[in-house]
Amino acid sequence: MPKLYPDARAALAEQLRDGMTIMSGGFGLCGVPMVLIEAIRDAGVRDLTIISNNAGTDNVGLGMLLHTRQVRKMISSYVGENAEFARQFLAGELEIEFNPQGTLAERIRAGGAGIPAFFTKTGVGTAVAEGKELRDFDGETYVMERGLFADLAIIHAWKGDAEGNLAYRKTARNFNPMMATAARMTVAQVEHLVPAGAIEPDAIHTPGIFVKRMIALPEGYEKRIESRTVTKRAA
After folding, report:
1. Which of 15, 29, 62, 95 could be stapled to 56 by a disulfide with Cβ–Cβ 3.0 to 4.6 Å?
2. How many C-beta atoms surround the C-beta of residue 100 within 10 A?
3. What is the CATH number of the domain that holds 29?
4. Full residue range of the structural domain in which residue 54 is found
């Protein structure tokens, strides 16, 4: 079946519904599937559970869905840089499940590998372990964490071919590869679309078997920067 769709709205057609769980790739604003997030916003679906390392910035990335009150729960690691997120959380309008970053990555990887749960030392003795099973191994205490699996994963890739094979570039190769494996439906937005077979097998980060649908981003696609650090001018 052809995997390439003309735009984000078409690629997400019949895949969105209220109350669903969505994984969204990215680290800060790097490797974030902005166009697909915009299409979810425009579709108007609500009560979403979003699994993402962070929550974007104000009205950028996942911040768009927070701004329109479409998110019910976030499963995340770092949620700074977003004043609207903080406001909704402190007002009791948004549920949050915090995860140590490595634990979040492993929960996603485990979900994609069909592993329902695993034990880790990270978080033992802290609020992270509250209400979770603890078990001793070789005299050390570990906390059980559950694998994560979503209804939909939206990801951003640097290069992709018609068969759905993907390659990521530098920091954008963050949560995207593991999320591609951990959902019933994976939709990718791709910066550079190339013919099938044009990506060297050793350079493929996500095999096409995991990608069901994809869109090619237009030329001039803007990559947003979370914050800039520049040298101050002399007085």
Report:
1. 62
2. 15
3. 3.40.1080.10
4. 8-115+147-215
